[in-house]
Amino acid sequence: MRNRAVWLFRRLEGLFAVYKPPGVHWKLVRDSLENNLLKGINSALPLEPRQEVKFLPESRDGSGGSTELIVTRVPALANHPLVTGPQFRKLRVGVGHRLDAFSSGVLVLGVGKGNKMLTDLYNSHTTRDYTVEGELGLATEDFSHTGRLIERTTYDHITQDNLDRVLAMIQGANQKALITYSNIDQRSQQAYELAAKGSLHPQGNSPPILTGLRCLRFKPPHFTLEMQCVNETQSFLRRVVHEVGLELRSTAVCTGVRRTRDGPFTLQAALTHKHWTLPEVTEASEEDRP
User: Fold this and answer.
1) Which domain holds residue 228?
2) Catalytic-labelled residue, pool 100, 120, 161, 288
3) Is 100 annotated as catalytic?
């Protein structure tokens, strides 16, 4: 029934997370989800058109002589979905903190009133986690492994202790920036307690800030970093990898960026492509509905 389609449409309220694969633009992810959801809603419409009563002439003896009017039911084709088209043609699917085509991982979207919740999530200054892959000995124009190569350098002198010291230095500089943009007196007890709890966050607009940075794997020339950030872009993360290489008296390019957490949404909660269906998106958005 058409009422079921309306019911399915109204159930789509809230936030949910999907896994965006690398090499795919976030707009394509959003459009694919919107199409899948609309197909799921409109498939609830009846395949058979409603019936209407008509008086049709019928021969009494079958020889084409006298006729009489017979009451019968015939399909009302004017109201058939194949004639009128789908009942629902537009569904607003909003996208939270975006990922560029180079990156992969958790992408949060909203449907219905979830679009307002996306704005609240964006303004809450929640941190996001990333796993970032790097390769030593190369430098490119855009700091990624796909950019135009401009330099090759040696990296045999680099140890994990060297890398850890550089990461600690970069994190320390970002921690000072975080305190500065939080508008809290750096010498106050409040600043110390908030920093110890990890509850500091910038007020208003601020540049990208790293709230956490550590090495997960070091196997030259390849290494893997874990980053916690606020107000970041993926270009900023690639630049961090480049700066790490320079501080190590070498060069480095970023070979991969994967977001593993966006606020309360983790990889475990992100729907993979085969699960971008109406039932599973509805269930996921209901679970994260406040």
Assistant:
1) 127-262
2) 100
3) yes
